[in-house]
Write a sequence for this structure.
């Protein structure tokens, strides 16, 4: 090998090493910015006992709060553009307690086609995903449902760790990170994907707790002496009590904010479909309260039992539990106590029943 060839090999090695070090430094720099913007502390994600979590502030930050820490991304991406004076519309916060937050940063605006492709790929990862973009013109974070043009210098992407289908698994998280890294490599951007093993561990532990408190309280109204309740009668009484029959085959009892407090269902397998209920008859109906998704569960429980008593009286049925044991006041008091204990456990764990976090986890 000639001296010239050896020199060229040395120069090539130096160049490759320099590029690697530059990309490594850029990724570390962006990861610090992303952590500052969204307060991503994976070691503190709803782990341990409630006592250990007592003094912890939940790692949440709104898009507006993220601006100060992330403004440098916009300044580096488009130094010639001044920030607009108007305030951004308020958006929901990323929640690092229940989401894995990753990101992409680019020196120039990220192409719309790249954003659109990334949104499509991350939406197919098997868990709910949210995306925010740092808008070049304003220096503000905006939640993105679709690409919306070449206006963003950075993206933050959050994959939910747990829902009612279970915890995120290694394949889903790898698919999410691969989509982000592949997108970044195509457009000469820097990708940041935090430790996935810590996220998987947090997801498993969070899912274990959610499974323990994922309780529904049901009460049945059963026809007596082998009789049945006609569907027309059920619908009339349910609607007069405040229920509305919806496409899922359930009567929903909602509050002023249109949130479901409890439902009324057929005790038999057939759902209450609008086009069939008039010709339907059933041996019983069931009132159901989805505990993790309801604010002030004990009060809602009392309301559900009041409605149940009235329906039982009007239909000529009996109010019973799932073992067909007639419910008396002592039995209802025990159920109320158990419900209160579940709600207290959720509150101590940082997941208020019926709160935004609970509605996302228990969906």
């Amino acid at each position: 090998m000639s001296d010239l060839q050896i020199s060229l090999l040395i120069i090539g090695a130096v160049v490759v090493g320099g590029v690697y070090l530059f990309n490594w430094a850029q990724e570390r720099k962006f990861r610090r910015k992303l952590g500052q913007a969204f307060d991503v502390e994976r070691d503190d994600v709803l782990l341990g006992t409630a006592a250990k979590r007592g003094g912890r502030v939940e790692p949440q930050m709104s898009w507006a709060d993220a601006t100060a820490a992330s403004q440098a991304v916009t300044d580096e991406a488009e130094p010639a553009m001044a920030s607009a004076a108007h305030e951004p519309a308020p958006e929901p916060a990323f929640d690092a307690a229940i989401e894995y937050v990753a990101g992409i940063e680019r020196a120039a605006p990220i192409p719309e086609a790249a954003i659109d492709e990334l949104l499509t790929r991350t939406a197919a990862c098997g868990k709910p995903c949210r995306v925010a973009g740092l808008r070049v013109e304003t220096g503000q974070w905006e939640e993105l449902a679709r690409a919306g043009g070449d206006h963003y210098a950075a993206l933050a992407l959050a994959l939910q760790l747990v829902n009612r289908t279970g915890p995120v698994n290694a394949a889903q998280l790898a698919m999410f990170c691969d989509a982000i890294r592949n997108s970044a490599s195509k457009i000469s951007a820097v990708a940041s994907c935090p430790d996935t093993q810590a996220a998987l561990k947090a997801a498993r532990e969070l899912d274990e707790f959610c499974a323990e408190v994922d309780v529904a309280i049901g009460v049945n109204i059963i026809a007596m002496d082998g009789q049945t309740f006609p569907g027309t009668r059920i619908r009339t009484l349910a609607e007069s009590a405040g229920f509305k029959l919806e496409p899922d085959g359930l009567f929903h009892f909602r509050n002023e904010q249109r949130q479901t407090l409890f439902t009324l269902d057929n005790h038999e397998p057939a759902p209450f479909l609008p086009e069939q209920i008039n010709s339907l008859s059933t041996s019983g109906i069931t009132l159901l309260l989805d505990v993790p998704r309801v604010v002030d569960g004990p009060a809602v429980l009392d309301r559900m039992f009041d409605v149940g008593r009235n329906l039982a009286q009007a239909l000529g049925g009996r109010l019973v539990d799932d073992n067909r044991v007639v419910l008396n006041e002592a039995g209802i008091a025990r159920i109320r106590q158990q419900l209160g204990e579940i709600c207290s456990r959720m509150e101590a764990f940082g997941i208020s029943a019926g709160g935004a976090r609970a509605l996302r986890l228990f969906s």
